[in-house]
C-alpha cells in the first residue's frame, strides 16, 4: 500500500497533527508499506529523532543519524485543496490518503474515490468532520456521541484508535517496570532520575509541556501557577526553539524532547495542554493536570476531566485563579491522588491505535499484499516448525533438524542481535513465511522461508519483496543485498533472478553460490 499523510505543523497549528501522523507512518513502514507526506513540516527534527530510536517493544532497528533525513517517508509539497491532493495522489500512485487537517473541505472523498484513492480522515468530535472511507476520532467518549450519517462506512472512535508512537509503549513498559521494582523492594526513590522515580519522589518531579510549539503562549502562566502553590518541586519546562522563559528556583527549561513519553515515565506529574499529548500520557500511565488551550480541545478536555482520568486546570484565563492553585497544591502534596489519576489514565489507552487504523486502511483499499513485522519470542514454536520442515532443511546450509531448546536459544540471540533483522510475513489469512537479513561487510544477506502449508501459492516473490521493503525502510535505498543459493535449487535461483539478483561467483565446494543486487 502507498499511503499519503496530509498534515501541517508549526507555531500557529502546533505539532499534534504531525505527531499523530508520525505514529501511523511508523506502523505503516514497519509493515512494509510506502509512506508519503504532504504538508509544512519544518522544525520537527526532535520528532524524527525520537522515531529513529530502537524500539524495545517491536525490535525495529534504529535508523542511522537523526533529524530531517530520518523522517519516515517521502515529503511532497503541501496540498491545500482537493484538486491539489488528487494531483499528488495520481502522480505518486497513492492508494490511501490520511488527512489530519481541519481546513481542507468536505469534498475530499468525492474527489479522491474516482481515482481509486481511499480517504481516511481524523476529526476531534465535530472539528475537522468530513465524509470519508475511514473516520478516526481518538477522543474519550467520541463513540458515545451521535454522529450525523454522512455515508462514512468505517468509524474508528475512542482512545482504542489513538495513533501513538512506538516510544509511548516503550515508556509504558519502563514505568511499569519501575513501579514493580519499587513495590518489590519496598524502597523509596532517592531523587530525580533514580531507578524508583516512577514512585513518588520528594520533592515531586514535574514536567510541563504546552504542546510542541506552545501556540497559545501559556508556559509563563503555568510556571507562575506552579510557583504560586508554594510547594517545593523539581520542575522541567519544555520550551520551544527560539523562545526564552524566565523560571524561578527549582525550575529548569529544556528543549523539545525527542522522547517525551520516556521523560514522562520518570516523573510524578505532567502539566500539559489538552491535545494529542494527553493520549500519550494516558498510555504511559502518569498523573496529568490539563490546560484547555484551544476551542477544539473543549469537548475532549471535558470528557477526560469528568471521567477522572486527569485533573482540570481550566483555560488560560483560569491559571491565576485560586482554585487552580489549590488543585496543583493538592496534586503536588498527595501521592495517592496522583496514583489514582495515573491508574485511571493507564486503563484508557493501550497504545495500539496506529495498527488498528492501518488494518482498516488495508481493508478499505482491498490491499491483499503482504505485511511484515519483527519476530518475537512468541513466534518460537511457529518458526521452529518451519525451520525443521524437510523441504526447508533440504536446501539449508545446516540441514540437520534442531531441538526446541536450541531453537529458542537461537531465537533469543537473534532478537538481541543488531546485525540481524528477523521478520514474520503475513497476508489476510495469517503468516505465510519469514525473511531474515544478516548484516556482514558485503551488505545484508537474505534468507526466506515459505510456510510449508502455503507453498505453491506463488508467495515466494511477494514474500521477498515484502522483506526488501522492510529492510529499505530501515537502511535506505542503495543498500547492497545478497542471497546464497544452492546450484541445484533451480526454483530459488529463478526467484532471485526475477528479483534482480545476479550471480557474482561460482558455487563453493558445497554447491552454494552468492547472488547480489542493490535496493533501489
Automatic annotation (TrEMBL):
Pfam family, one: Acetyltransf_3
Keyword check for Acyltransferase: yes
Biased composition (Basic and acidic residues): 173-185
Name of this protein: Spore coat polysaccharide biosynthesis predicted glycosyltransferase SpsG
Region (Disordered) location: 55-75, 165-204
GO terms, molecular function: acyltransferase activity, transferring groups other than amino-acyl groups
Domain of life from the UniProt record: Bacteria
